[in-house]
Amino acid sequence: MTSAFRERWRNRLALHATAFSPDFNLFATKTTENIKVWDAQTLQEMLTLLDVSTGRGPAFSPDGHQLACSGPKGTVKIYDATALPEKP
Asked: Taking the model in full, what pTM does it have?
């Protein structure tokens, strides 16, 4: 774990789960309030998903094109991971 990553998460909400995309270019983190998608090389935040705080951790599809997040009462939300902002 890099010092930049530790600094970013210092004094943040509890981290409950993580998931890496199949190509390891992205990873998703679940806290008590949201799920965030990060660029694994730059550690830049790419996307924040709200309304998923009560569910389990995120999971990328095998092709990396979708991100699944469980929600309240057994629901599952599927997000298009290919719609994430382009890397600079």
From this structure: 0.72
Q: What confidence tens digit (pLDDT) does each residue in 40-54 have?
A: 999 998 888 876 656
Report the 3 state secondary structure along the chain.
Answer: CCHHHHHHHCCCCCEEEEEECCCCCEEEEEECCCEEEEECCCCCEEEEECCCCCCCCEEECCCCCEEEEECHHHCEEEEEHHHCCCCC
3-83 carries CATH number 2.20.25: yes
What residues does each domain of the chain span? 3-83
Which residues have C-beta within 8 Å of that of residue 10, sequence separation ≥ 6?
none
Q: What does the pLDDT look like over 64-74, one tens digit per residue? A: 999 998 777 77
